[in-house]
Predict the 3D structure of the following.
Amino acid sequence: MVPDGKVNPIDTDYQIGQDNIAVQVGPFGLDIHNRVFAISGLAVIAFVLITLIFQQQVAPLFGDLRGWLTSSLDWFFISAANVFVLLCIYLIFSPLGRVRLGGTEATPDFSYLGWFSMLFAAGMGIGLMFYGVSEPLSHFSTAFGGTSIENGVRTDWAPLGAAGGDAELAARLGMAATIYHWALHPWAIYAVLALGLALFSFNKGLPLTIRSVFYPLLGERVWGWPGHVIDILAVLATLFGLATSLGLGASQAAAGLHYLFGVPEGNTTEVLLVIGITLIALVSVMAGLEAGVKRLSEINMVLAALLMLFVIIVGPTLAIVTGFFDNLLAYLQYLPALANPVGREDVNFSQGWTAFYWAWWISWSPFVGMFIARVSRGRTVREFLIAVLLIPSLACVLWMTVFGTAAISQHLAGFQDAASVALPLQLFTMLDVLPWAQVTSFIAIILVVVFFITSSDSGSLVIDTIAAGGKVNAPTPQRVFWCTFEGLVAIALILGGGLVALQAMAVSTGFPFTLVLLMSCVALVKGLASEPRSV
């Protein structure tokens, strides 16, 4: 796309797609990067086959892998996330914030409403549905239960120093810990990569692919094997990060169908759900960005807002309204301690929750980052960062406050206790106490399914762009391939160890990509420093 106004493009002889192989297979055309597509595609196929053939053998391996990575590298993940937040804050207040994506005269391609809807739905949809009730309730329960020590080591899962029997303190600490996992830090992870991709594509004239961000560090070598490795890591991280979310979505939709209609729970139902929803996602993929993802995202935003408004009105309204501001203050109060990477006593919380979350968000960052980049042309860096950091963060705070406060209030009042049921069922158990439970639970299932579709749809578009050497409008059969294999990876992980397997692969692909993201921060600042700035 030609820039509007002044830019400082990178002078390179590389042409987008020059290393691609274009072939015709019957009526279907392919236009793929010969190394990135081949290596990442074969790796995914091999993983699916091995996991499905050796289900019993791989399940304990996944559990051990997840435990080792989060316990050994918790300090690394927490430190890296802090770096991304600090960089975003620096860029907002520095003169570099005046750089405009797409050139000094560029104008936005989407309205604010459309822009917010797409980045929010793609960024966190399924996770909010799955954890909106369960995470605040889990942190509240563990904090209220206090600390427990065996052989000099804490064995409880409470955040920080817990709240030992103080319900009010436990609620504040539980909500602060939840917001920490869903506000500034994850959105800063997304924003850093999204900004780099947008800058080097729209302003520097490079392909819209992860390797382009590293041109200031690698120069022309970025088109060789160093760049191939970066893009292959991005494809694998995205695929397994998405598979984790799709697996969570399938387990929650299965729990909801069992609750409403008595559909049997278990792997068979979850696999059938993944297959059915992947087929719907394929239709959306073939419709493209405007017709598919944008419309679905906006429909889902309306449904999510209606469900949230319903819980506010019929739930503990006063507690929710006052809780929003109390929770924000609690988050700011506990943030320094929660973000501390060393010397933690709450090892189960910092390793089992925070380290996993940051690895999961990082594995999603190529997908969400590229998607946000594609829809953010025309924004200034300052406008981009404020919007991407603050708007979704506040929306997440509101969502967690509404559903978390409702669940905690029910728990304290002695109603049917969502904390006593499995995680995927906790949202439906909370809604069961409120009026019209059948209707709201059905809407919740629809939300999970549509968030599932938008994530799969958006992810397929992004992975295909990377595997096509940065070509944004590659042939549709390639997107169909990646969308299909997202579903197959999710099925393989469900059958090969369930939630633990899903989490293990998100963490293991998130680790190497964290190194990639940290290096991209340096390249981003270098790239911004060379750009002309809007007045």
In short: The chain has 16 helices and four strands. The CA atoms of residues 163 and 422 lie 24 Å apart. The chain has a mean pLDDT of 88.
